[in-house]
Write a structure and sequence with these properties.
The protein has 105 residues and is an all-alpha fold. It has 5 helices and no strands. It is 68% helix and 0% strand. Helix 4 crosses helix 5.
Length: 105
């Protein structure tokens, strides 16, 4: 029962983010930034970065909401530098976050 409830809550938490990312152009822009910068850590899990597509790793992050995810993306956390070490603007960073969220399985 608790697992079912957790999945339902996770679904509700991620739905707004995914609905905003439904624009193929946004996901394409996010994928481009992911592949040029984010992939270094988010494909391997380096420095405890949640790996792309790893639902278990992303669940607690998604539960904190998009605002918190964007704060981490813009300001950095742990080994992740602000803006992922890029000069990407907020819209591009959000697109990259939305792209990564769209790949959570």
């Amino acid at each position: 029962m608790l697992k079912t409830l957790s999945i339902a809550v996770l679904s509700l938490a991620i739905m707004p983010a995914l609905s905003m990312a439904s624009d193929p152009g946004t996901l394409k822009q996010g994928e481009k930034l992911y592949k040029s910068s984010c992939v270094a850590c988010h494909s391997t899990g380096a420095a405890n970065a949640p790996k792309l597509g790893n639902k278990k790793a992303w669940e607690p992050i998604i539960a904190r909401g998009m605002d918190e995810m964007m704060t981490v993306a813009t300001e950095g956390r742990g080994a992740m530098p602000a803006r992922g070490g890029t000069k990407a603007d907020d819209a591009a960073l959000r697109a990259a976050v939305e792209y990564m969220l769209s790949r959570v399985k």
